[in-house]
Amino acid sequence: MPELRQLRTFLAVAEQLSFTRAAERLHLTQQTVSKTIDRLERELGVELLERTTREVRLTAAGATLLEAGREALDAADDAFARTRLVGAGLSGTIRVGVSPAIGPEDRAEVVQVLRARGDVSVSLHDVRPGELRGMLREQQIELALTRAAGTLDETLHAAPLRPSRMALYVPAGHPLATARTARLEQLDGERLQVPSARGTPYTDMLLARLAAAGVHVTPVEARVTGSAGVSLTELAAAGAVGLMPEGTPAPDGVVALPVELTAPLLVLWPAGRPSAAVRALLEALPAA
């Protein structure tokens, strides 16, 4: 099967009608060019060039290969160039899985970082944490953003990004609803709405962070889950407060208050060398 290298050499000779000038153009020896053309003719079983001591002429088969070969080589060069751009994160679509605990500000910042690399599109996919690993392994998404890595998985790699600021959300009738800010210790003894039961990575992480600050709460599992903030509509009925990423829209009847608490932000990707998109996030949003 002829190779692109042979086609490239033939096109140089056919366009220059000179082995000497083609060799200079390709930065090869004239002997190498001649051997490459001889091998190409043997593999195709046709004569491409008529050689005399005074000139080089194209045969009918050679003229056909010149016309079709230019298009084939241009298409190959274009495919290689586009592949390099996609591999470098400068073109194509980057598919990002996002767990419901990732707020709008984090999402917007990640999109901004990835879009700054070139002519790329970013497709965000809301995915439940339990589905992230399968989608990464099956290459349905290139990377994923989550709050807790969960159990160790040798098929995936994870790295921390800069943590996200959290906010306290309380029903309008709550004693803190008229405050300008909230302190963590004011949550002690509260019912805290959590997205899932104890024993799941994100809920356990959130409760552990509060316990480390001396704050003990009663977790109340949300009955409505989905994108960040959808469960906040239940706070009043549950008699609970909520902790969400800062910037999560507060529904009617709910007040958002700044609070001194951050939550980890992790990027996950299939095990191996991180893609250009992952490297861009690690560089732009370092954990330190």
How would you state the average pLDDT, rounded?
Answer: 87
Shape: rod-shaped
Question: How many strand segments?
Answer: 10
The named CATH superfamily of the largest domain: Periplasmic binding protein-like II
Separate helix tally: 9
User: What order do the helices and strands follow?
Assistant: HHHEEHEHEHEEEHEHEEH
Under CATH, the topology of the largest domain is which?
D-Maltodextrin-Binding Protein, domain 2
Number of separate domains: 3
CATH architecture of the largest domain, by name, is: 3-Layer(aba) Sandwich
Radius of gyration: 30 Å
Strand composition percent? 25-35%
Residue runs with pLDDT of under 50 for 5 or more positions? none
Helical proportion, percent range: 25-40%
Structural category: alpha/beta
How far apart, in Å, are the first and last alpha carbons? 53 Å
CATH C-level name of the largest domain:
Alpha Beta
Give a short account of the largest sheet: 8 strands, mixed
Please list the strands of the largest sheet in the order they lie side by side. Answer: 4-3-5-10-6-9-7-8
